[in-house]
Structures are given as C-alpha cells and as structure tokens.
Write a structure and sequence with these properties.
mainly beta; 0% helix; 5-stranded antiparallel sheet; 344 residues
C-alpha cells in the first residue's frame, strides 16, 4: 500500500479531444529520487484535462473538457485508486481549470469555451452538490481567432479568503469575485483588471507572501508582474516568458516553495524558464529544455519538478537545485498518453 502522499495523478486528453489517454492515470513517486512508477489508468473518464484535490478530504476533482462540460469527483483510495462520487454539468463548454476554496466548502470551475465561472457547494465529505452559480464574462480581444469572445482559463482562490481571481484569455482580463458562502454565489468586486491588449492571459501564480503575483500571456509570450493588495492586482511591469527565438506560447506558471524563483512552461520552444524574484521584475536566470516541444503543465513536489508534455506524450522529471533554483533532468522520460496535468 502506498502512502497517498507519494501518489501522483495525471490527467489527459482522451479520444473526445483527439487525445490518446483513457482517463486519469496514477503513478507512485519516490520522494528521494523523484522517480515515477506508473500504476495504470485508475479512472476512465472523458478528457480529464485538469485535476485538483480537496484540501482536507481524500477527494479528487477533474474537469471533463467537453462541448457540454462536466466536473467529476472521485474518492481517492490506497495506491491512488479512484472511486466516482458524482458528475455535475458545469453549465459551459470545455472546462479547463478548477480549484477548491481554502475552507473546502466550494468548488470553482473555469469554462473556457463558455467564458464563464461555475460554483458548486461541497458537502462535508467533499461531494459536489447542484451548481449554485454561473457567471458569464462578456467581450473579446484583438485576436480574431483566439479572442472572438470570453474564454475563462483559470480560477484562483485567495488562500487568505480574499477575492477569487478569474483569468480570461478571450477578454484580456482578470475578474475579481467575493463568494457569498451561504448562497454559493459570486459577487463582482470592482472593475475587471485588464491586461495588455492581445496578451491572452492564461494562468496566474501567487507568491507565498500573498503580496505578489505573476500572469503569463499565452498569446504574446510574456510574464506580467503584479503587486497584490486587498485582493486587487497592480501592474509592476512585463518581461518575455522565454529567451529563445521562435514561437513561444506560455502554459503553466508556478513559484518555488521558498518564494525565490518563478517557473514558466513554454510551448513551441519546449522549455521551462527560471526567473529570480529578488527584484521588482522577474529576472531570467536559466532556461531548460524539456525534451519535447509542448510542455502543457508542470508541478513542483519537494526537490522535484514534473513536466507534462502533451504532444511528446511524456512526463519529464527534474531535480531542482535548492540554491540556484535551476532544474536538471533526472532519468528517462515516463511515457504517458496525451498528458495535460500532473498532480503530486
């Protein structure tokens, strides 16, 4: 029996999204070496493209990125086994991200195709109830192909129970909402924060100090730095997400546990860029090849970085130097069909 702390779940695209995954896979992680031992598919479910765990219960949630989006909840058992707890419609197309409120009482879902945010109350066991709210964004950006309308790409609850931030690629905006915990409804707080036109904001990373955040622009290949005050974002400046030439399409962004380094996955050039966070703006100090061209997602766990390359169909494992923050490849890639999310 594996301790649940050593289990990694991996989401991916199934045939519903032209992918080759069958659902959610599990692997056992060696905390010392970082090595992953695949345990096979533990839940057959359509295109579970993003996964998240409940903060206090052995429950995992997956978006099902379908034309009529769904969210599925699973009870996590020994060795990563997943038992379905329920499926709920998200009220929008192609949900691509989800997050649980810090108190574990609500689940938020970003509907990419629907340009909306859905809210589900969670019972004491972590099981989602009927959807309590659905907020639709309106507008568009300058890119006629990618920004024809709203496309919500991420929901980011405040760890200190401040406003929920909803990142919208289609409208070049980050929206702020307070949650009415009794009704499960979202209340807009102030005007939306607009990014540079055509940035196509995708994902946001918060600093552990709660006072800074960084937003990657999927369409313009940038990282924008913000001060975070009273739940509002105040822009400090922008830098390139990569130092490489060619098409750069940032994907995931994350901060190391000690808050000294920022990591950005860059599709197209196939890298993870490492930025020092000592100054006003992130400073690019290293850029590491991932061995594939499409690093869709990554996760930091202990001393290790796990990179999911969707098109190269692999998880690449790196050890992160605790002093320099720079990742170094460990071992051989782990073959995984169409991975889009890795959840230690």
């Amino acid at each position: 029996m594996a301790d649940q702390g050593t289990i990694v779940h991996i989401g991916g695209y199934t045939a519903h999204s032209d992918g080759r995954a069958e659902g959610i896979l599990a692997a056992r992680r060696d905390p010392a070496t970082g090595a992953l031992t695949p345990l096979g598919t533990v839940a057959v479910t359509p295109s579970p493209s993003f996964l998240v765990r409940h903060p206090a219960r052995p429950v995992l949630y997956a978006v099902n990125e379908l034309p009529e989006g769904e969210v599925t909840a699973f009870r996590v058992g020994p060795d990563g086994a997943l038992d379905p707890l329920g499926v709920r419609p998200t009220g929008g197309a192609e949900p691509c991200h989800l997050a649980v409120a810090p108190d574990g009482r609500h689940l938020f879902v970003a509907n990419y195709g629907g340009g909306s945010v859905a809210v589900f109350p969670l019972d004491p066991a972590g099981v989602p109830g009927e959807r309590s709210d659905l907020v639709r964004h309106e507008g568009h950006g300058p890119d006629p192909e990618r920004q024809d309308r709203a496309h919500t790409h991420m929901v980011s609850p405040d760890p200190d129970r401040g406003p929920l931030l909803a990142v919208d690629l289609g409208t070049d905006s980050v929206y702020r909402y307070d949650l009415d915990a009794d009704t499960g409804r979202l209340l807009p707080t102030g005007p939306r924060m607009r990014t540079a036109a055509g940035a196509g904001p995708r994902h946001l990373a918060r600093h552990p100090d709660g006072q800074r955040a960084w937003l990657v622009g999927e369409l313009d290949g940038t990282v924008t730095a913000y001060a975070l005050r009273d739940g509002a974002l105040h822009q400090r400046g922008r830098v390139d997400a990569s130092g490489r030439a060619g098409h750069v399409q940032p994907s995931e962004v994350g901060v190391g546990a000690d808050g000294r380094f920022l990591y950005v996955g860059n599709r197209g050039v196939g890298t993870v860029a490492v930025f020092a966070l000592a100054g006003e703006l992130p400073e690019l100090i290293a850029e590491v090849d991932t061995g594939g061209g499409w690093p869709r997602h990554f996760a930091l766990a202990g001393e290790h970085l796990y990179v999911a390359d969707e098109r190269a169909e692999m998880i690449r494992i790196f050890r992160v130097d605790p002093v320099t923050g720079v990742p170094t490849v460990v071992g051989e890639p782990v073959a995984v069909p169409s991975p889009t999310c890795v959840l230690p």
